Amino acid sequence: MSAAGRRWGRRQRALLWGVLLAAWEAARGQLRYSVPEEMPKGSFVGDVAKDLGLQLPALSHGGVRILDKGRTQYFALHGKTGHLVTAERIDREQLCRLVEKCVLRCELIVEGEMQVYGIDVEIMDVNDNAPSFRQAEKDLRLSETTAPGSRFPLAEAHDPDSGRNSLRSYELSGDEHFSLAVQAGPGGDQRPELVLAKALDREEAAFHELVLRASDGGDPARTGTARIRVTVLDANDNAPVFSQAEYTVRVPEDVPVGSVLITVTATDADEGLNGLVKYSMKKETDMASDIFHLDSETGEITLLRILDFEEGDSYELEVQAHDNGALFDTTKVAITVTDINDNAPELTVSSKLNEISEDAPAGAVVALLHVEDRDSGRNGEVRCSLDVGAPFRLEKSYEDYYRVVTARELDREQVSEYNVTVRAADGGSPPLQSSAVLALRVLDVNDNAPVFAQERYSARLAENNAAGALVLTVRASDADWGQNARVRYRLGDVRFFPIVVF
Length: 502
Ligand SMILES: *[C@@H]1O[C@H](CO)[C@@H](O)[C@H](O)[C@H]1NC(C)=O
Known about the structure:
Layout: H1 3-27, E1 30-36, E2 44-47, H2 48-52, H3 56-60, E3 64-66, E4 75-78, E5 83-86, H4 92-95, E6 103-110, E7 115-124, E8 132-133, E9 137-143, E10 151-153, E11 157-158, E12 167-173, E13 178-184, E14 190-196, E15 207-216, E16 223-233, E17 241-242, E18 246-252, E19 260-263, E20 266-267, E21 278-281, E22 292-294, E23 300-303, E24 314-322, E25 328-338, E26 346-352, E27 355-357, E28 365-372, E29 382-386, E30 392-396, E31 401-406, E32 417-426, E33 433-443, E34 451-452, E35 476-477
Parallel strand pairs: 1-7, 9-16, 18-25, 27-33
Antiparallel strand pairs: 2-5, 3-6, 4-5, 6-7, 8-11, 10-14, 12-15, 13-14, 15-16, 17-20, 19-23, 21-24, 22-23, 24-25, 26-28, 28-31, 29-32, 30-31, 32-33, 34-35
Bound molecules: 2-acetamido-2-deoxy-beta-D-glucopyranose.
2-acetamido-2-deoxy-beta-D-glucopyranose binds next to strand 32.
């Protein structure tokens, strides 16, 4: 026997069995049909007349009818043809909500034979329902620290159709953070679960929109969807970050107290309290905390007391930004104080003479001075000068030391006392000055001979005058001082006349 022949034989046998079964069941007063649901009213269900071997005239005269039990009649008997037809549109899902095999029964009475036949009509499922979710939207709130692999149950979809027309599969679309797992429930039902496939990061994406799609096995398949909205809850997983690793600012030393010198800013990517930043100074390292005030809320650094460049020309603060948790960042704030010409040069007389001999040679040292200016740069550059016309000059000595020396030999007989003013001025604008006075007395040297008031003196005397009579008075003066100016008179050679001396 060929393969086609075998197949033909099988079909013949199956058909034969069907006919035999129908005949046997008809003999038992039982008929079986099947009809798809949702057929329009009047659709053919089965040829009752033929299957029961009834004569059509008997039918047309009302001898055969469907028994009315006061319930909804789904079927009717067509008088002319003897066909069982639908009397209503039949919805399988309405009639047999939870029953897999939906069979409607009606009874046929043949008046002439006093015979009742039962007719079972199986309502075949049609894929007229799509899977549906009771809730079309679901909100899930997950912490961003939720471990990958965590599972969250999702609502199941329902499809009232039966068999392959009922729910078959689920699929999830959205993003790579989530995947779908389907567990088999105890009753063989499918339970969809959302699986976190990749760690969440609220700062990257605070919401995820997913779509869960349920499909049935019909042809064509019908689908139903539910939207899943995942809100990612913040965790304190971000530390504050300063806008700069180091802040530098230059301020003049005369900046007023209370001025804002600089503002530090840190941001935290977290939200709410987790992202709230507070600033603080690392006190233990900063002696500057009594000079500068840091506002913990705004990050403003203000001046608490007046700065002094000469006391400190730079400060380094370590500032921290903390969030509400334990996360923080540190930055450096370098404050450079710039100089203001607020210091006059200081002139110190380190050593000096009070007197100098008038025969001291030119270049004799009269005083040693020291100048200093606490300002820096041009503000601290000092120039020294002496009175114009004074017989002295300045000579630079070691570093900031100057010598006052005589510019030429002095002459006590001309000027016996000097008040030498030394001036020091810095290079600021305007310059600041200071001065010192050196009082110097010039000591005498016997460098002047006595000089007679007259070159020649003459007098007339009467003869026979008494001895001791005054002839004349001579006078000599000496420009020197003290002993050097004391004049003694002595008579030299006397020619012709004696001279009386007092
Ligand atoms: C020098 O200064 C002193 C004190 O001020 C004063 O007594 C004296 O007269 C001054 N001498 C000269 C030569 O100016």
